[in-house]
Amino acid sequence: MALSKVEKRIRIKRRVRGKISGSSELPRLSVYKSNKEIYAQLIDDKDGKTLVSASSRDKGVDAKGTKSEVSAAVGKAIATKAIAAGIQAIVFDRNGFVYHGRVKALADGAREGGLKF
């Protein structure tokens, strides 16, 4: 029997998470997208803590325009919060989603904001 779309994404996510991990010096930028919103977190996996987070639901994020434009704004917002927290470089975790569309827009927005990955 074929796997569902969600089950495929979770398999990919597990495979990728076996290879990458975040630390306090090089945190992991984890992306989650639903049909309406997009969320991003900088995670220190060694301590199990979220260092910085941003989403399209935050008041500081300009949630106008297409979903891709909103995703780019979330990427810029997380980059400014990360730089304020003293984080310059990160590891990108697309969380099993295809690096295309909204996920790519968020990554490009984070790069424009000053994060290196």
TrEMBL record:
InterPro entries given in the database record: Ribosomal_L18 (IPR057268), Ribosomal_uL18_bac-type (IPR004389), Ribosomal_uL18_bac/plant/anim (IPR005484)
Subunit (UniProt): Part of the 50S ribosomal subunit; part of the 5S rRNA/L5/L18/L25 subcomplex. Contacts the 5S and 23S rRNAs.
Residues spanning the membrane: none
Pfam families assigned to the protein according to its UniProt record, in alphabetical order: Ribosomal_L18p
Entry keyword set: Ribonucleoprotein, Ribosomal protein, RNA-binding, rRNA-binding
Protein name per UniProt: Large ribosomal subunit protein uL18
Gene3D superfamilies: 3.30.420.100
UniProt key word Glycosyltransferase: no
Organism in which the protein naturally occurs: Chryseobacterium limigenitum
Family: Belongs to the universal ribosomal protein uL18 family.
A single MF term (Gene Ontology): 5S rRNA binding
Known function: This is one of the proteins that bind and probably mediate the attachment of the 5S RNA into the large ribosomal subunit, where it forms part of the central protuberance.
A cellular component term, taken from the record's GO annotations: cytosolic large ribosomal subunit
Any single biological process term in GO: translation
